[in-house]
Design goal:
Helices cover 52% and strands 15% of the residues. It has 20 helices and 13 strands. The structure holds 6-O-phosphono-alpha-D-glucopyranose and manganese (II) ion (MN). 6-O-phosphono-alpha-D-glucopyranose (G6P) is lined by residues 106-107, 144, 165-167, 265, 269, 302, 322.
Length: 445
């Protein structure tokens, strides 16, 4: 089985390959093709994978190419994990928004819109090529903003593209643990958009255990989301929001905190990873050691940053290892071997949330089998959550329209309609600011 990884020179690729190395079962991936635009990044990551493979018998064979069509031909699965504009682009997404006094963050608010506007045209081009060159392949989209990018690709690939995120599964796991339940046994009633969802229940042996958590301030205050949102607010909501909802519920504090940091998350990671890729240019460098060291630093600062800016608690080792690769591997196995399972994924709504049309990509528990991911029926969201979901989906649709038409006015509309952008004038300045710094937005006229 052939797996193609787009964004194959990315820093997290060794996590994916590491997950593949643990899979010994029949029908596993035997061939990995890394694709990236940047030769030196491909070379760096291929060296790490080479060292990972050295201690494992029958490790999947790895090749690398900068030719996209060659990478796609014959693929059974395509992981799309690209970052258009790189981490410098992410840093600019953050900086321009913060300078206008609104949230500057990778996926939420103005920063996420800018990232989406640059990424959608590239993702659409990839989707068209997959449809032509590997029509039977399944595309697993890691690329952020994951819900929006998955929807853009689904217009060309239908249900053959599935978006993933590690945050819902991480949240479910933390809730199960504080309740003393086995996360594998728990049914998590979660729905929304990517980075905009709520856990409304957690069923174990047919009983909803979430009310027990919501009624117990001690338990509620003991885990990351409890510390982040505060016991009172979680009790008022009657649900546990995805951590990214902190940017909505505590927007003013989040913006202020981010305005005060010396380096934004994107700027910090850009520097740190640049050092790793530089080091890899030395032929004698120990690749896996350098990668591991860089990753450990990244995780340490992740915890430190979270505490300072968002007030979040500590994360456990499982959360820090990301989890994206585990979700992706579980999804790929379920499809390839018809091993039925349930995963929270980004798929077309198909009537699951009645307020959204059938093609709107949502994040929801899905039954997965050889026929793909099938969203499970869920109870409707309460009005306040429906309001946010509809507003943000409306913004995503404007981003898709702007990317398709190249209309600057539509891009302004996307920013202006976002709940976290408080004036049309600010939206206009954001479009100015972003088109100034991002070559990838030159298409907006
Ligand atoms: C979580 C989110 C991802 C996001 C990442 C950022 O894993 O689910 O969508 O990209 O955090 O982490 P970073 O270490 O890049 O700031
Ligand atoms: Mn995510």
């Amino acid at each position: 089985m052939k797996l193609t990884i787009l964004g194959g020179g990315g820093f997290r690729v060794p996590l994916v390959y590491g997950a593949l190395l643990t899979d010994r079962a029949e029908g596993r991936v035997t061939e990995v093709v890394l694709h990236d635009l940047d030769d030196s990044r491909l070379y760096a990551v291929a060296r790490v994978l080479d060292e990972q493979a050295a201690v494992v018998p029958d490790a999947p064979r790895v090749t690398a190419t900068t030719d996209l069509d060659e990478a796609l031909r014959g693929a059974d699965f395509v992981f799309s994990a690209i970052r258009v504009g790189g981490l410098e682009g992410r840093a600019n997404d953050e900086r321009v928004a913060l300078a206008e006094g609104v949230l500057g963050q990778e996926t939420v608010g103005a920063g996420g819109i800018a990232y989406g506007l640059r990424t959608v045209p590239v993702a659409v081009d990839i989707a068209r090529r997959v449809a032509r060159l590997a029509p039977d392949a399944w595309v697993i989209n890691f690329t952020n903003p994951a819900g929006l990018v998955t929807e853009a690709m689904s217009r060309h690939l239908g249900d053959r593209v599935i978006g993933i995120c590690d945050s819902p599964v991480g949240l479910g796991r933390r809730i199960a643990r504080v309740l003393g339940a086995d996360p594998k046994e728990a049914w998590i009633d979660y729905v929304g958009l990517n980075h905009l969802g709520w856990v409304r229940g957690l069923r174990v042996a047919g009983r909803d255990e979430l009310p027990r958590l919501l009624a117990d301030p001690g338990l509620l205050g003991s885990f990351e989301e409890g510390k982040l949102f505060g016991v009172d607010w979680l009790q008022s909501l009657g649900a546990i929001p995805n951590e990214y909802l902190h940017y909505y519920y505590f927007n003013r504090e989040a913006v202020r905190a981010y305005q005060q940091v010396e380096k934004t998350r994107g700027a910090f990671l850009a520097d740190q990873q640049a050092r790793f890729y530089e080091e890899m240019k030395r032929p004698d460098a120990a690749a896996l050691t350098a990668w591991d060291r860089t990753r450990a630093e990244r995780e340490a600062t992740y915890m430190a940053e979270n505490r300072e800016t968002a007030g979040a608690g500590e994360r456990d080792a499982d959360d820090l290892s990301g989890g994206y690769e585990k979700v992706a591997l579980a999804l790929m196995r379920a499809i390839a071997r018809d091993e039925r399972t349930t995963l929270i994924l980004n798929v077309r709504n198909q009537g699951t949330l009645a307020v959204l049309d059938a093609d709107a990509v949502i994040e929801v528990p899905c039954l997965v089998d050889a026929n793909g991911a099938h969203p499970v029926a869920v109870a409707p969201l309460p009005d306040h959550a429906t309001g946010l979901v509809c507003a943000v989906k409306g913004v995503e649709r404007e981003v898709l329209a702007a990317a398709a038409s190249g209309s600057r006015a539509t891009a302004v509309k996307a920013f202006a309609l976002h709940p976290l952008v408080d004036s049309v004038n600010v939206a206009r300045k954001l479009v100015e600011g972003y088109t100034d710094v991002h070559p990838g937005l030159a298409y907006l006229r």
